[in-house]
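Late entry, evening session. Most of the bench is empty. Finally got around to the prediction I had been postponing all week. Sequence below, unchanged from the version circulated by S.P.
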Amino acid sequence: YSNKLNADANEFIGFAVDGAKRMQTLINDLLAYSRVGTRGRAFKLCDCEATLTKAISSLNKMIEESGATVTYDSMPTMEVDASQFEQVFRNLISNAIKYRCEDETAHVYISAERKNDEWLFSVRDNGIGIKPEYFERIFVIFQQLHGKGEYGGDGNGAGLAICKRIVERHGGRIWVESEPAKGSTFYFTIPVKKQDILMETSTKELQEKIDAEKSEAIESLT
C-alpha cells in the first residue's frame, strides 16, 4: 500500500518497522543471554585453536570489508563448551573490529598463556578504547553507555554480557584494560580441569617416549 499513502504515513510505517526490528533483536539477545546457563552443552575436550579459527571464519565478511587483520598464538586443548567458547571469541573479535579507529586499520591479536591452574586468554586491539568509568558497566546487559563513535554507543550491550555469563559458567572471570584512543585488551580466564591435566601429562609422556626412541635409534646407527 506504499503507493497509496502519503509521505508522512510511509515515514511512520518505517519508524514502526525499525522499532519492531530493534525489539526483535533485543528479544533474541535476551534469549541468548538467558540460555547460556540453561541450554549450554556438556564440557568436553576441545581444540581451542580450531574453535578460534571457526569464529574468525564466521566473521570473514566483516574482516574483509573493514580490511582488519586478525592474528593469534597457539591455543590450548581443554575441557569447555566449544559452542559457547566460539561465541566468546566471535563477540570479542567483532567488537574489536566494530570499534576501530576511523583512520587506522584494525589489528586484533589473540593469545593464551598458562598461569598455574588456569589459562589466561587475551584479545587485544588498536581501536578507540574505553574510558575507565565504563570498565564494569560494559559487561552489564543492555547498557548503552555513551554516544555513537564511542565504545558501545551503537550497540545494545548484550555481546559482552553474554561473554561474561559464558566465562563465569566455565568458572572463570573476564575484564578489560584500556585507554581511550589507545586500544583495548580483553582478558578472560578458564580454570584447568583434571581431565586437561591428565591429557597434558599423557601428551608429555608420549613425547618423552618418542624422543627416547629417537635417541636409541640414532645411537644404534652410530
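Two things to note before I forget:
Residues 43 and 81 are 5 Å apart (CA to CA).
Helices lie at 7-38, 48-58, 60-66, 82-98, 159-169, 194-221.
Will write this up properly tomorrow.
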